[in-house]
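Good morning,

Attaching, inline, the backbone tokens for the sequence recovery test we're adding to the shared suite. The designed sequence is right after.
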């Protein structure tokens, strides 16, 4: 009888161990299935939300500079602003606490602008005054969502993915035609100065921007026969598309302008009907950019 009781206890113990092993195997299989099937999708969704946050952050960078530009026009003097940039994202609560990192770069790319005008067969250009316009670039390093590049340059915000780029927020350029057929070309372009910086992080970083005195290159008092705007940047596709839409909205005749572009340069050429009928107004607004001042 004692042997039967011992055997029964032994069988119960084995059954408990087997049940525990099966339950543990079921939990492991469930967790593995979630990690394989669902966590990548959840991570991609989280990284997508992070990219949307970065769009907002970089848009606030442009808006902050625009507000300082408007303030300087009223004669309020120099001003500064700090813009926080969310560098990391992609965390999945309870399953993945790791966040993707990103890279923030200041003034590390070649961005140049040139304006060439012609009057009476004589050319005049801006030389080095609009050379080295600077940039603020955000490069994502996502695990699942497609990587994107956000670039603030010459007063415009560009979003790039793979080999394509679009102008998300436009720079301060206008082309209009007055009732007397004078073509008014106005540029208030942003020139970013400061040291070249590069920082990889998954935390919150701050881009600090300080305004400086503006420089007027063309004040609109002199009319010219032809005007050429040349933009050198790796976001040439975005500039080509933007300038094409700008000129379509200007209501100029198709034979009064042309736009040419390659992978690094976009050229806009405007010519009047006859004589000097293009009025250029060009101002360069310098700003200094830095990272994490405080």
């Amino acid at each position: 009888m004692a042997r039967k009781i011992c055997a029964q206890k032994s069988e119960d113990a084995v059954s408990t161990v087997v049940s525990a092993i099966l339950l543990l195997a079921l939990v492991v299989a469930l967790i593995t299935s979630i990690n394989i099937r669902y966590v990548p999708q959840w991570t991609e969704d989280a990284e997508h939300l992070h990219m949307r946050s970065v769009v907002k952050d970089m848009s606030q960078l442009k808006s902050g500079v625009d507000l300082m530009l408007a303030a300087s026009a009223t004669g309020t003097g120099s001003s500064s602003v700090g813009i926080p940039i969310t560098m990391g994202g992609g965390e999945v609560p309870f399953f993945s606490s790791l966040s993707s990192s990103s890279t923030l770069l200041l003034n590390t790319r070649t961005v140049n602008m040139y304006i060439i005008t012609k009057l009476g067969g004589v050319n005049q250009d801006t030389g080095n005054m609009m050379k080295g316009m600077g940039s603020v670039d955000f490069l994502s390093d996502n695990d699942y969502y497609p990587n994107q590049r956000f670039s603030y340059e010459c007063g415009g915000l560009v979003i790039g993915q793979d080999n394509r780029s679009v102008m998300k927020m436009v720079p301060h350029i206008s082309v209009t035609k007055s009732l007397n057929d004078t073509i008014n070309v106005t540029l208030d372009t942003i020139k970013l100065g400061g040291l070249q910086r590069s920082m990889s992080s998954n935390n919150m970083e701050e881009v600090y921007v300080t305004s400086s005195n503006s420089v007027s290159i063309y004040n609109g008092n002199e009319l010219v026969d032809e005007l050429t705007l040349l933009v050198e940047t790796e976001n040439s596709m975005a500039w080509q598309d933007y300038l094409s839409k700008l000129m379509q909205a200007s209501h100029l005749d198709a034979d009064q302008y042309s736009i040419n572009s390659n992978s690094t340069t976009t050229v806009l050429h405007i010519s009047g009907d006859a004589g000097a009928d293009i009025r250029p107004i060009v101002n360069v607004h310098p700003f200094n950019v830095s990272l994490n001042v405080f």
